Amino acid sequence: MFVSTLIVAISTVKMATTMASGEERAASEVLRALARHLNCLNEDSKTTRKRALEAIKRETIDKGLSSGVLQEVFTCLLKSLLKCLSDPMERCRETAIHMLGDFIRCVPQPEDSLPYLMPALTQRLGGKEIVEPAEELRLSMVEVVTLTVEVCGRHLAPYLDDMMKILQRTIVDPFPDVKRESCKCTVHFAKSVPEHFHMQAESLVKPLMQTVSHQHSRVRVSTIEATGAVIQYGTGKNVDDVLSHLAQRLFDDSPQVRKAVTVVVGDWLLHLRDRYSYFHKLIPLLLSSLSDDIPEISQQAADLWRQTGALWEQENEDDLKDKMDFLLTPPDLYPAGVARPGLGCRELVVRNLSNLLPALARDVVDWVAGTRVKTAQLLYALLLHAEDHCTQHLQLLLSTLYRACTDPEGDVVTNVSAINIFMECVDHFLSPSLPVSYLSISLSISLSPLPLSLAPLHLSLAPLSLSQAVQSVVSLWKVQGLATVADLYRQHMDQLLQWLSASQKTWTSYSPQRLQLQVIATQSGPVIGEFLPLLMPLLQNCLDPERDPEMRLHIFTMLS
Predict the structure, then answer these.
(1) I need a surface site. Which of 164, 439, 443, 517 has the fewest CB within 10 A?
(2) Whole-prediction pTM
(3) From which residue to which does the signal peptide run (predicted)?
């Protein structure tokens, strides 16, 4: 048997040697036939050089040679073809670029060309100035770079610097198609050499952010996808540099752009290396897509969010054992027709709510109406997840609610159903055990021109309107068994004034606390005189000359 095996092995080696020799002879014959054409590439005549290149293409690529022969021929032709990339005649450069792409696509070992190919492409594409003047040829070159990444893969690791120089320049190329192809190339390159890509991924963030708002929607989509790969396969330190840009694209007119943001953010929540550190920044972006006008986008966001919650639940199973057993049933009065989010999703929101609410409180008074609408929708989604945990943030929630309901833009309030749903959500989850907060919101409503459509606010009182706030305060002191309304104020005045003092440094003329102070000062009668040590410092701070002039005017009017 050993002898038979040895004979077979010897025969195989001889056959391979014979085949190799045959391919070498075939390659030599081809090269001899090409010798005259190669010499013509050095001629001064543009027409001669063009015809020589076309002849070389007919004798190699177009002739259907075997891959082994093409490999030998390509090795010998490579330097000449690369030299043609700088030919003064555009047609010659075009032919050379296409031939390079054809060879790289067909030869069995395209990586052998990298030591010569990459420096040449870097020289043409990666400089500070545009070397290749023709847009279509720059596109063809970038397509060759993408092809090289696809077929050479990890062999490109030693050429990380060259690749980054090329991509930094071509991502901001004036030609939109070059931008798109460069973004596509970025994604492939990041996935091909992840163990090396992270070392220089940061250098692509700036050019990508310069391109993400391009006027062509397809360019914006490609840029967002490339940004996803750069952050995913980078160090993870540049998340903050791109979040504001991605958040802005959630308002994009193109559904495909908004979908791209949704997919990228969802992927980060599932796979980003340091995603736990960025949950409070990524969650709002994905939850915002839940209310997108396009069903496909909102459904995709919902699917990604469910996956995120399920993964987090799986990774933190030990911490959630008790809740898994006892928190499966929705709470009483849960909004009808609304699917309750999974435990993992609810826990993610609860644990990040303290970081999310301050930002939303700012955005609810943003100067752009679209931002305020989006914020109201996001508030609703967060409350559905937080459920009774929202009582821990009652003061900020009520303040934010007040601002949303008194928005100066009528369309934001009356035409956004999410605001109504949001109030109903508060109605379902708040516990009627905080009379100070309820009294203060009742007092605010008594001076606020709230639309009657925004009725339900379950503060252990009947739904409040302007024609009912005062009566509600009367009902409150009766429920508590007090003799007069003055006794109600006296019982809670200390807490009310301390609560107002805690936030007075941030007051403006639009702050609900300013209205609450006005009601307390004018409606409590002689009771307010019993608490002057608390009231006077509050008034002094509000009347500081450095404060908002309009707010100071309101305070002076109140005092008069």
Answers:
(1) 164
(2) 0.75
(3) 1-20
